[in-house]
Amino acid sequence: MSDRLLEAVTAGVRTVDLGRQLRVGMPQSPNHPQFWHTLPRRHGDMTRSDGGSAANDMITTGTHVGTHIDALAHVSHEGKMHGGVNAAEAGVGGKYVELGVHTIAPMIRRGILLDIPAVRGTERLEGGDEITVDDLESACAAQGVEVSAGDVVLIRSGWAQLFDEGQPYVGGPSGVPGVGEPGAQWLASREVHAAGADTIAFERLAPGGGHALLPAHRVLLVESGIYIIEALDLEELARTRTYEFTFVLVPLNIFGATGSPVRPLAVV
Ligand code: UVW
């Protein structure tokens, strides 16, 4: 059994872990503060009279690290967040109250995997490749699935194979594959609940273009109220051709946060 396939023995439920391990030095977007983990108190630093001791660690981190979800508070366009909320009034305790990650209800929903390299007959897409509407529809047809309102749609590019290589996963000169604005419109027109991918920013990053232009973020988060999930590990689902499953995700309940690290599961 692959180490990505966990057996929940008591319930007899088979799940696939779609989340990444949080580690110092893992690849992450330059847009966000680094994940950092230290051990300020080690065993033996304080020893109780009975000989016992405890180690206590500490993390400091942006909320958009590892596998994570973007709340609607994350992005604005021309001064407005989703629903016309004025971005200038956003701040912890301000308008983030309406759109922060604490407002995302735990998800137990139908999940759909769209495996784009499989329909294109390749191992993984190239940096900067745009996943088109035709790709999305071809994947649905090839896999015999239909995307419906309320689904969580996960789009595989195969780029996750580069996660352990660090910088190449983030893009830079090569860019990163993903949907562009038309693909995001396609998802929005189907009224999905959330859309995810196995890449750092969900959408296509142009070669050399960095993380500057993010039109799919605007379409999904600002215009449509659709959450985005990034840096998923979709390799096990693809390997086992699991295209339909129950998707489970619980964000951290951080008041007013723009995102949260998550550990989503596919119940298969
Ligand atoms: C990027 O860095 C673009 O990811 P996020 O959407 O989390 O900001």
UniProtKB/TrEMBL annotation:
Segment forming the signal sequence: none
UniProt superkingdom: Bacteria
One Pfam family named in its UniProt record: Cyclase
Transmembrane stretches, start-end: none
Protein name: Kynurenine formamidase
Organism field: Rhodococcoides corynebacterioides
Source taxonomy: Bacteria, Bacillati, Actinomycetota, Actinomycetes, Mycobacteriales
